[in-house]
Amino acid sequence: MRPSILSPLFAPLSSIIGLGEKSQKLLKNLDCHSTKDLIFHLPINFVDRRFAPKVCDAIAGRVATLKVKVIEHIAPQKKSQPYKVIVADETEQMTILFFKAYPSTIQKNLPLGKWVAISGKVEQFNGSLQMSHPDYILPAEQIETLKKVEPVYPLTAGISNKMLNKWISQALNRVPALPEWIDENLLKEKNWNSFGHSLFAAHRPSCLNDLDPNSYARQRLAYDELLANQLTLALARQKIKKQKGRELKGNGLLRKKFLENLPFKLTQAQEKVLQEIFTDQAAPFKMLRLLQGDVGCGKTVVAFIAMLNAVECGFQAALMAPTEILAKQHWENFQEWCSCLNIRCELLTGKTKTKKRQEILSDLALGKIDILVGTHALFQENVAFHDLAFAVIDEQHRFGVHQRLNFSNKGDLTDILVMTATPIPRTLLLTSYGDMEYSKIDQVPEGRQPVDTRVMPVEKIHDIVAALKRKIDEGSRAYWVCPLVEESEKIDLAAAEERFSSLQKYFGDKVGLIHGKMKEAQKDLVMEKFKTGEISLLVATTVIEVGVNVPEATVMIIEHAERFGLAQLHQLRGRIKRGFQASTCILLYAHPLSETSRARLNIMKETEDGFKIAEEDLDIRGGGEILGTKQSGFNTFKLADLSVQKGLLLTASKEARLIIQQDPDLTSTKGYALRNLLYLFEQDEAIKNYKQ
Does residue 24 contact residue 2 with C-beta atoms inside 8 Å? Predict the structure, then answer.
């Protein structure tokens, strides 16, 4: 149950005076669903109404608050003309203009002969001062009630700043005095005030510095949000560590035989990661580990060896890939590896024929299948394992924390390894994957050569095609990735088909096309031809996974590379790092090139280190959509801006770990204050992770 002290903040928007049903619907566009969401909707600017001169001293282009007498009303002669009201003080006259306004309303608000207070931006026209549609008009004696500094909020159609100011003021008055959850020493060190005081200060900016993420008030609020995030993850991690697992300690025979048949030696990084995984598997608790490594660093081999440990113990293992192409690729590798080990591996996807599917499901339940590879179809209800002990989730399955907690329910006491080739910045590791243990393969196999990355203008395309023809005539294979035109598969497809047609003139039937609209069988056929060399050049759109293991492909041309995110560019370039031959990646760009695009292309040219690329991309893009993927827990922060507040995240991470060590059930006085924090930021699921 949510603590009653927080009830005023979770009251529905309908409880705010003057906030009707229509406005409530519109506020959803601003992600405002309750009173709490209003107080977390921070201003992005402010209007300073403190300048209150005489009319003669008013400055054009500046907001002024004036006390004036209404002298004359001048109704328009034509519809296109404004309604004018002449006002003055003892120093000078000025004109107030109203376009498309109701005369009766104007006359009521500005009665002839009365003194009024007006506030708005002063303009100059033909040497005379004027003000169009004042922001405020009120009786002169009420001038002191006018806000001297008015916050300006992000808006949506149908909601004005004046409306938001009224509603947010009401919401702020409901903020209760909450017991402090931040350590006293940290409050002093950072010069932070209480949560309530900081909230009021953030909504009452008086200078530009108050809007800065590094202002004391905004820092404090950002830290509260980050601490709630890190504490949630720490509690989830604690729960996983407490969940009973099974101790997987195989006899090593299958692993020994596999390594003896492997045509290469594992790198030190692979050996190190394997030991980390084996330690997890041998522990009596469930495993949940993230394995990160660049394309071609050998994650799949590591995962397969870990699966063999489970098979040696008499259990089953499974691998889930995001697409059918990748699932099939993994299965083909595993089939080859399993053949010399006398163990059975099967493939299950949405395209598996009914008869074969029934056979697989039956044998799986009987324990006749050791390793099952597939897409998300693996985890449908009708798929029953005999005894699943180890599951691997490959690439792009960025499940949320609570989904991961529930994921292993498919098997009794199942260990989980999540693999990704997408380089993840440290901040994202902390905010989205902080519930998981973490391993990193930061070494590529010996003998693998760096990719020669070149950045060239699209005008040189004819020279590039000629050079590409020479390479293909020598027996090379290449990818040609078509540009991302816009968020439209149809238009992307048209661009790819056009490029395919133009390249056919040079390469004839040696060029193939693959895109997301093709049927699976067609895709497989084109991919197979590319693998065998029947096709030497593969043209592809960006809407499909091109992550096929073709070591012979040594050239990658990416058209309009400036339209791609760094992660996409890095992942695509990784496709020509599968073999041990020298390879070339050409990034074609079109003018004009923005500073951000130029910086992005330069990073690609300078380094192949995915982890460095990830951090650079974070710095270039700020806290927006990092690496072209929307991450849960990262860009959903309302108060924190990780592009400038990384330090606060690290502090929150350390603090959360310390809290769990000292008060794992949150039963101390501070623990109960922290429960308020978790409920305040709607981390209700985390509350369930400890004893009530």
Answer: no
- How far apart (Å, rounded) are the C-alpha atoms in residues 97 and 438? 64
121, 63 Cβ separation under 8 angstroms: yes
Statement: residue 357 has pLDDT above 50: yes
Half-sphere exposure of 250 (CA within 13 A, CB side): 22
Question: Phi and psi of 290, rounded to 5°?
Answer: -100, 125
- Tens of pLDDT, residues 439-495: 988 887 777 788 899 999 999 999 999 999 999 998 899 999 987 554 455 555 567
What single-letter DSSP state applies at residue 180?
P
DSSP secondary structure string for all residues of 654-688: HHHHHHHHH-TT--SHHHHHHHHHHHHTT-HHHHT
Is-contact 319 347, C-beta < 8 A? no
Q: What is the DSSP letter of 244?
A: B
Distance CA 532, CA 253 (A): 34
| Among the listed residues 347, 297, 340, the one whose alpha carbon sits nearest the alpha carbon of residue 320 | 347
Asked whether 64 and 148 are in contact (CB, 8 A), the reply is no
Tokens coding 303: 């995962």
Q: What is the rounded CA–CA span in Å between residue 541 and residue 545?
A: 9
Count Cβ atoms below 10 Å from residue 91 Cβ, excluding itself. Answer: 11
Q: Given its phi and psi angles, is residue 133 left (phi above 0), alpha (psi -120 to 50 degrees) or beta?
A: left
Whats the size of the chain, residue-wise? 692
Which whole-number Å values give the CA distances from 662 to 189, 656, 670, 679, 684, in the listed order? 22, 10, 11, 21, 21
Q: Are 273 and 415 in contact (CB under 8 A)?
A: no
Strand order in the sheet with 477-481: 451-457, 583-589, 553-558, 477-481, 537-540, 511-514
What whole-number distance in Å separates Cα of residue 202 and Cα of residue 181? Answer: 19
**Would you say 597 and 620 are in contact if contact means Cβ atoms under 8 Å apart?**
no
Rg of the chain, C-alpha, whole Å: 32
Question: Residue 441 gets which letter from DSSP?
Answer: E
Looking only at the bridges linking them, the beta strands covering 583-589 and 451-457 are parallel
How far CA 94 is from CA of 70, 85, 305, 529, 629, in Å, comes to: 10, 9, 83, 79, 54
